[in-house]
Amino acid sequence: MQTLIYVFSGTGNSLLIANSIAKKLPQSKVIPLVDLLKTSLSPKLEDVNIGLIFPVYFYKMPAIVKRVLEENLLPKSKTIFCITSSGEETPNVIYDVNKLLGKNGSSLAFGKSLSLADNSIILKTSLVQRNIALNELDLKIDEIVQHIKNMDHIPLVAPNLWHLTLSPLTKFSFIHLYSAQNRYVDSSCINCNLCTRLCPVENIRNIDGKISIGQNCEWCFACLNWCPTQAIHFGKIHPHKTQQYHAPGIHSSQLSHRK
Ligand SMILES: Cc1cc2nc3c(=O)[nH]c(=O)nc-3n(C[C@H](O)[C@H](O)[C@H](O)COP(=O)(O)O)c2cc1C
Ligand code: SF4
Ligand code: SF4
C-alpha cells in the first residue's frame, strides 16, 4: 500500500526521519506539509497510509500542524501515524494530535516521539548526545517501518504531566527571549535570499534588496540556523556560527519552499 509522508521541518531533523522511513518503505512519498494548505480540496484517498512528521515547539505541535488537523486537511486513511522530532522525548504531542484527529472522527494508528538535536540556538545539544541519537535512529526507523508495513495499531502513552506544566512556561520565556517585535537583519547580510526561500510561511521578504521579517512566524528557526553570515537576530538571541544547527546530510535546497 502507498504511504504519503507529510513533513514540516525547519532544520532537517524531521525531514531526515521522513527520508529515512521513505528509503526503507517501497511506494512511499515525502511531501511538504505546507502543500496541504495550498490545495483547496484534500485528496480523498482511503487506501493509503498517512504519515505526519514535524518538530515540537514548547512541548506542543507547531501552529501549522494544528491548523492542518483542525481544518481536516489530511487525506482520509485508516492508518495515520505521527512521528515528532525534538530535543528530548515529548510524548504528549502525539496524544494532542490524536485528540485533534478524534474531533474529525479519525485516530492515530501509532505515534513515536524521537529525540535528535535541539535547534533552538540557546539549548544546544552536545555533539556526544547528537551522535548517540543518530546512531540509535536507524533501529528506531526500522521499528517504525515495520509498524507501517503491518498497519499496526498501538495504544498511545498517557501524557506527561510535567511537560504539560513546562509547556506554557517555555513558551512564555521563549517569546520574551526571541521577541517577535524585535527581529532584524544586520549589515552582514549578503542578500543570498536563503532565508526567503526557506521560510515555510513566506514570513521573510526581500524588498528592494532589504530583508524584512514579518509577524507571521511559525518558530521553525530555519532562518536563524541556516543564514550563512548569522545576520538574523531574534530579540535577545544573536546566533553564533557554532550555535547554528542543521541535520546531518540534509542540504538547505531540500527544505526550500521557493526557487
Ligand atoms: C521555538 C522552538 C521550541 C522548541 N521547543 C522544544 C521543546 O519544547 N521540547 C524539545 O524537546 N525540543 C524543542 N525544540 C527543539 C526542536 O523540536 C528540535 O530541534 C526538532 O528536532 C527540530 O526539527 P526540524 O530540524 O525538523 O526543524 C524547540 C525548537 C524551537 C525552534
Ligand atoms: S540568509 Fe542571511 S545573508 Fe542570506 S539573505 Fe537572509 S539574512 Fe541575508
Ligand atoms: S521567520 Fe524564520 S523562524 Fe519564522 S517561520 Fe520563517 S524561517 Fe521560520
For the structure shown, list the relevant keywords.
259 residues; alpha/beta; Rossmann fold; Alpha-Beta Plaits; 2 domains; five-stranded parallel sheet; globular; binds iron/sulfur cluster
Summarize the structure.
With 259 residues, this protein is of the alpha/beta class. It has 2 domains: 2-160, Flavodoxin domain (Rossmann fold, 3-Layer(aba) Sandwich), CATH 3.40.50.360; 177-255, 2-Layer Sandwich (Alpha-Beta Plaits), CATH 3.30.70.20. It has helices at residues 13-24, 35-38, 63-70, 92-103, 127-150, 161-177, 194-198, 222-226, 252-255; strands spanning 2-7, 28-32, 48-55, 79-86, 110-115, 183-185, 204-207, 210-213, 232-234.
Describe the protein's architecture and organization:
The chain is of the alpha/beta class and 259 residues long. It has helices spanning 13-24, 35-38, 63-70, 92-103, 127-150, 161-177, 194-198, 222-226, 252-255, and strands at 2-7, 28-32, 48-55, 79-86, 110-115, 183-185, 204-207, 210-213, 232-234. The strands form three sheets. It has a five-stranded parallel beta sheet with strand order 2-1-3-4-5, sandwiched between helices. A two-stranded antiparallel sheet has the order 6-9. α1 packs across α5. It binds flavin mononucleotide (FMN) and iron/sulfur cluster (2 copies).
